[in-house]
Amino acid sequence: MSTEFREYLRKIGSGPHTSKSLTREEAAAAYRLMLQAEATPVQIGGFMIAHRIKRPTGEELAGMLDAYNELGPQLQPIDAAYPVMVMCNPYDGRSRTSPLSPLIALILATAGVPVVTPGGDRMPTKMGVPLVDLWQALGVSWAKLSLDQLQQVLAQTLLGLLYLPRHFPLAQTIVAYREQIGKRPPQATLELIWSPYCGPCHTVSGFVHPPTENMFRIAGELHGLSQFTAIKGLEGSCDLPRDRTVIAMLSNAVGDWRRFTLHPQEFGAAAKELPLLDTADLAAAYQNVLAGEPSDVTNATVWSAGFYLWRAGAVATIEAGMALALELLQAGKVKAQLAHLCCAVAAIT
């Protein structure tokens, strides 16, 4: 048992009237003890439940990030025309709508915008299809790469998926607790803002609940994040909704945060959301999009990709981003980018 960790648990778990928030330093210490298994399973489970009930603060989230940055993997800076866009989707996936993250990432990379996506295997509580499986269905085996190999592929192709079980095993050991407590712990919020890339980057965080915005803002300012995009996306992902107003929080400089709304109908993008398909059917739909075929999946992909091309600074307007995304698809350049990626991965595995 860790007596130090017990004090942190006691502080946040004393009930609605006497519990207190941790300082940034205490939150970092608590998460180091969890990741390094110096806290016992009982302590870790109790901490997760207590912290979820209390709700983490922005300062605590900053401390949690400190621990992840200290103990987690770090991809090194690469040469690129734009900062790496780290797209942080919920690790437990989707249960109602089809994810388009691989297609969006391929379009961005084709336009010269590097993309890194962290994730793992099927994870509680949703147990949705993980992005690593969707990439595998496209012929890309991210799970086989060592961290050095991942670095090499990122530099060559401007694409990378950091696979938690292989690249951050300390964090992977905590995954089992999620199923046992039956709820997402605050660590799931941490994952939406954690970047495994140590160079200049643009963090993109999906979220669901409005209070998360303020936590992101405080933690981002404490960590000196300049380029940041938080999207109230589909099921908390980075995919833009089409059947409702897009709500976002944007920052282009440290401390410069602004609320942003976007109406899909003004861009000809309004439509019903794509229902969740099984992996095989979704991979087939991806291939049709890559072939430049018109479809509802193509429209949804172009909508999100156009927005992120604009946020990356690759185009002057969202409309121009949508036009560029469609042009790259129809010209076969995105499909060629996937072939380049598959060759790069196959050559070193």
UniProtKB/TrEMBL annotation:
Q: Name one GO biological process term.
A: L-tryptophan biosynthetic process
Keywords assigned:
Amino-acid biosynthesis, Aromatic amino acid biosynthesis, Glycosyltransferase, Transferase
GO cellular-component terms in the record? cytosol
Q: Where do the Glycosyl transferase family 3 N-terminal domain residues begin and end?
A: 6-70
| Domain Glycosyl transferase family intervals | 100-333
Q: Which Gene3D superfamilies does this entry report, sorted A to Z?
A: Nucleoside phosphorylase/phosphoribosyltransferase catalytic domain, Transferase, Pyrimidine Nucleoside Phosphorylase, Chain C
Provide any one GO MF term from the record.
Answer: anthranilate phosphoribosyltransferase activity
Q: Which organism is it from?
A: Romeriopsis navalis LEGE 11480
- Would you tell me the protein name for this molecule? Anthranilate phosphoribosyltransferase family protein
